[in-house]
């Protein structure tokens, strides 16, 4: 149901709904699917949850929906922070008849939840062409592992065909149940890169995704083709490892530990948190949803272990006043494991 002639749309434009959104070329909010669900369920309350980067569009999506839905329907917007499909607003989910989660592919399907994945419309093959300089020529090594993020998943077939046309054999797999698609990686899960290839082409943005990928697969060359920032790099984990070693060293003197159990629906690792607290009388279990430096300040523990989203430790780690470690790093800091066992913290399963 496009509001705009095909000729006016850029190639790859996924927007096919929208009224207020008619100048928004990037995303398809699938309003028809939401309206159908409201009708089917005679819903009175519709909850919308957007990731941080799309919250500023929430008002316009609500405007469009209000116009399309019966007057008595109430549209609510989640004000909770949201960084992934692991991070559903469960309060809103329980209190609305239709709950829509935008921006992430499903971590776990449920009749209650409508997931609207939002894909980028950026072209991927120009940056892949540049990345060829870092790939071995097909006559030397034709096997390439291909991975991408949910945002670019709509072009995965195109990426694969492009490589095949240039003589490569593309190795892909679907990682585990935490991942929706073949070839998809998350900031906490790179199981899709576990393929029979010595080189992995990661098409996507972000600094830490490919670092985690490279640390998880140290035997492979990880080439990053970032179509959003138009840049190609080979992942280099050295700086990152130094930062992690420094945090572990600093935590070695800690007497009291705070062990964080994250209450977000897809970020809970209870067994991991409990195991640490049971084995250490000086470790205290802290439950919280959003893990920020401010929220920990008043506890005053010497160091923390984060069993929630691994990105909090790796991306935000330096912002915490005390060392913030992953569960694996904690074991190194207390002498239970050798220093060279340091690895990237990954998260498997759903809830
Ligand atoms: S746990 Fe963190 S990295 Fe994993 S999906 Fe959730 S927000 Fe992303």
Overall description:
This protein has 351 residues and is an alpha/beta fold. The chain has helices at 31-41, 58-68, 90-95, 125-131, 156-165, 208-216, 238-251, 270-279, 293-297, 310-316, 327-333; strands at residues 45-49, 74-77, 98-102, 113-116, 143-148, 169-171, 199-203, 221-226, 231-234, 257-262, 283-288, 303-306, 324-325. It has three domains: 6-116, Diphthamide synthesis DPH1/DPH2 domain 1 (Rossmann fold); 125-234, 3-Layer(aba) Sandwich (Rossmann fold); 238-341, Rossmann fold (3-Layer(aba) Sandwich). It is built from eleven helices and 13 strands. The strands form three sheets. The chain has a five-stranded mixed β-sheet, sandwiched between helices. Strands 2-1-3-4 form a four-stranded parallel β-sheet. The radius of gyration is 22 Å and the shape is flat. The two termini are 36 Å apart. Mean pLDDT is 90; it is low at 1-25. Bound molecules: iron/sulfur cluster (SF4). Its EC number is 2.5.1.108. It catalyses: L-histidyl-[translation elongation factor 2] + S-adenosyl-L-methionine = 2-[(3S)-amino-3-carboxypropyl]-L-histidyl-[translation elongation factor 2] + S-methyl-5'-thioadenosine + H(+). InterPro entries: DPH1/DPH2, DPH1/DPH2_1, DPH1/DPH2_2, DPH1/DPH2_3, DPH1/DPH2_euk_archaea, Dph2_arc.
